[in-house]
């Protein structure tokens, strides 16, 4: 792991919803270029850009039809290079999205692959004969229905773990692996600094399992090969999107001597508030578990890796709506969550709009949604006949990925200054929740994030100190970060009520950051303090 890998403070841009400059209602690269100074002032040093490659858009760009191009709606390769230069000249690195578990069915490899059984591209994908006239196995796709799609022309099924327009690549084929390594080198040679690797633990399939998924027998081998062929020679940073791993499995993918990924996201705390992890089935959030899970990962990766600190992305509703109190303590709970999470050891990732303390937009009917997962889930649940329309709308409102995908509210003007045209998805602009207003307001979530990021960069114990959990009871937690005799205490009240200041906080500490104006004998609702000893 290079020093700069450890120092990353990343910001995710979902390009479709960031900033539109030509009035077509879709964010674009020029829009990002226009916001680079905003990003610099926020203090982040790395951008993760969600896919901006040519795509039919079945899954908003996660279905790629050309790995080496830029989607015309986002701009041109020249504009992309201008954006990259603009980032680099401001000390910001760029991570692209690497979506190599699957392509679009409109990618030329798949177009050729489905032409005939003996086409040279046939083995780029996973084709199987029907079994007794049915799907080859019972695997279910992440977006609903069977993971197998029958193709009349050649009389076989192809595998798709996501939508049927996202056929899975066959990583067992060495040609596929070479193509991917070459493509990675193409972007790294252009100056890109690394990748966020989409559902990467799925690339090796385990067909002995009854349910669809990855972590197959050749995962480590495939990743190590990419590392040797492309990533390592460029010193690239990689973060894997890996759902459902244990800390031990994450270490196996990221340990220093492994030569696989630099780090992985862990999302276990983001399953809270969902019955059995089902995003459309709400239950109260267990706040103690939230801290315990994060602490488990801190301890679990401490020996040889770096956790990623994340609570929002384009697949999640806004953290504030689920974990905070948007009605009574929007500012306090947004800032407390940031202090609790980003006080930990690891690499912070911030999702666009999180720095404003945005909560979920309101969707009034299914027509307002755009996400394939939401629309499919709605139709499936509706077909069961168990839910009223009102119940269905509440479920979608709670779990839909579109909650995090509405456009950035830049100004108080029309459509939040996102577009002069009709946005591709509704905008929600609430008073006090625009960049324009928050820049002016000293006590805004935006200005708080700026302070927090600055401190994380300045205080070595925050960047790399050892983690220890001292207390997690009655919705109050205390942990320390220690490096070279310097200790930072992070105390957080994850509750609407006050409580006494915990005994484990020694007297005479210096306040580094506080989301209330003062420190007293009690912790106020959602108060969090970073102290230094
Ligand atoms: C990842 C992406 C998600 C996408 C899926 C399939 O989970 O984050 O947005 O739908 O992979 O590519
Ligand atoms: Ca546009």
The gist of it:
Helices cover 29% and strands 15% of the residues.
Would you spell out the secondary-structure blueprint of this structure?
Layout (H helix, E strand, L loop, with lengths): L2 H4 L3 E4 L15 H5 L2 H7 L3 E4 L27 H13 L3 E6 L9 H6 L13 E2 L19 E4 L4 E4 L14 H17 L3 E4 L21 H16 L2 E4 L6 H8 L8 E2 L22 H15 L6 E2 L9 H5 L6 H13 L4 E5 L20 H12 L5 H11 L35 H6 L4 H14 L1 H5 L1 E8 L2 E8 L2 E8 L5 E2 L9 E5 L7 E2 L4 E5 L1
Parallel strand pairs: 1-2, 1-11, 2-3, 3-7, 7-8, 8-9, 10-11
Antiparallel strand pairs: 4-6, 5-6, 12-13, 13-14, 14-18, 15-17, 16-18
Helix pairs in contact: 6-7, 8-9, 11-15, 12-13
Describe this structure in words.
The structure is a single chain. With 533 residues, the chain is of the alpha/beta class. The protein has four domains: 4-101 and 174-366 and 404-452, Alpha-Beta Barrel (TIM Barrel), CATH 3.20.20; 108-159, Oligo-1,6-glucosidase, Domain 2 (Oligo-1,6-glucosidase, domain 2, Alpha-Beta Complex); 367-399, no CATH class; 465-532, Golgi alpha-mannosidase II (Immunoglobulin-like, Sandwich). 29% of the residues lie in helices and 15% in strands. The protein has helices spanning 3-6, 29-33, 36-42, 77-89, 108-113, 174-190, 219-234, 247-254, 287-301, 319-323, 330-342, 372-383, 389-399, 435-440, 445-458, 460-464; strands spanning 10-13, 46-49, 93-98, 127-128, 148-151, 156-159, 194-197, 237-240, 263-264, 308-309, 347-351, 466-473, 476-483, 486-493, 499-500, 510-514, 522-523, 528-532. The strands form four sheets. Strands 9-8-7-3-2-1-11-10 form an eight-stranded parallel β-sheet, with helices on one face. A five-stranded antiparallel β-sheet has the order 12-13-14-18-16. It has a three-stranded antiparallel β-sheet with strand order 4-6-5, with no helix packed on it. α6 (174-190) runs parallel beside α7, α8 packs parallel to α9 (287-301) and α12 (372-383) runs antiparallel to α13 (389-399). The longest helix is centred in the middle third of the chain and has 17 residues, at 174-190. Bound molecules: alpha-D-glucopyranose and calcium ion (CA). Alpha-D-glucopyranose (GLC) is lined by residues 59, 62, 99, 162, 198-199, 241, 314-315.
């Amino acid at each position: 792991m290079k020093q700069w890998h450890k120092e990353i403070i990343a910001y995710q841009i979902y390009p479709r919803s960031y900033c539109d400059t030509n009035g077509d209602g879709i964010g674009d690269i020029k829009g990002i270029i226009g916001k680079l100074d905003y990003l610099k002032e926020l203090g982040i040093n790395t951008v993760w850009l969600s896919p901006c490659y040519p795509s039919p858009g079945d899954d908003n760009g996660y279905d790629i039809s050309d790995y080496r191009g830029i989607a015309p709606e986002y701009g041109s390769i020249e504009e992309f290079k201008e954006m990259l230069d603009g980032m680099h000249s401001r000390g910001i690195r760029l991570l692209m999205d690497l979506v190599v578990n699957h392509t679009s069915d409109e990618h030329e490899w798949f177009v050729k692959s489905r032409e005939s059984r003996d086409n040279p591209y046939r083995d780029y994908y996973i084709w199987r004969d029907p079994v007794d006239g049915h799907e080859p196995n019972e695997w279910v796709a992440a977006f609903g229905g069977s993971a197998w799609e029958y193709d009349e022309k050649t009389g076989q099924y192809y595998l798709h773990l996501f939508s049927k327009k996202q056929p899975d690549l066959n990583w067992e084929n060495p040609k596929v692996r070479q193509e991917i390594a070459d493509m990675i080198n193409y972007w790294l040679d252009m100056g890109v600094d690394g990748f966020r690797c989409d559902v990467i633990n799925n690339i090796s399939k385990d067909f002995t399992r009854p349910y669809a998924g990855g972590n197959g027998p050749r995962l480590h081998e495939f990743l190590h090969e990419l590392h040797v062929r492309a990533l390592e020679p460029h010193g690239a940073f990689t973060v894997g999107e890996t759902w459902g791993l244990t800390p031990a499995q994450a270490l196996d993918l990221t340990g220093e001597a492994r030569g696989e990924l630099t780090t992985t996201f862990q999302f276990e705390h983001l399953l809270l508030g969902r019955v059995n992890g089902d995003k459309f089935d709400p239950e109260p959030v267990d706040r103690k578990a939230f801290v315990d899970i994060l602490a488990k990962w801190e301890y679990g990766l401490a020996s040889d890796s770096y956790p990623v600190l994340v609570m929002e992305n384009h697949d999640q509703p806004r953290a504030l709506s689920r974990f905070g109190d948007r009605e009574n303590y929007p500012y306090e709970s947004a800032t407390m969550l940031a202090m609790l999470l980003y006080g930990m050891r690891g690499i912070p990732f911030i999702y666009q709009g999180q720095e404003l303390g945005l909560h979920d937009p309101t969707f009034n009917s299914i027509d307002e949604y755009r996400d394939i997962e939401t629309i499919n889930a709605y139709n499936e649940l509706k077909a069961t006949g168990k839910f009223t329309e009102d119940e269905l709308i509440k479920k979608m409102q709670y779990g839909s990925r579109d909650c995090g995908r509405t456009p950035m509210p830049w100004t108080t003007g029309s459509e939040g200054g996102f577009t002069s045209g009709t946005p591709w998805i509704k905008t929600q602009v609430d008073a006090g929740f625009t960049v324009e207003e928050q820049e002016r307001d000293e006590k805004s979530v935006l200005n708080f994030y700026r302070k927090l990021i600055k401190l994380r960069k300045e205080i070595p114990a925050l960047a790399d100190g050892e983690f220890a959990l001292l207390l997690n009871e009655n919705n109050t937690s205390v942990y320390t970060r220690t490096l070279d005799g310097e200790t930072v205490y992070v105390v957080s009240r994850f509750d609407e009520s006050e409580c006494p200041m915990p005994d484990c906080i020694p007297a005479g500490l210096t306040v580094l950051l506080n989301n209330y104006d003062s420190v007293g004998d009690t912790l106020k609702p959602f108060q969090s303090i970073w102290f230094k000893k």
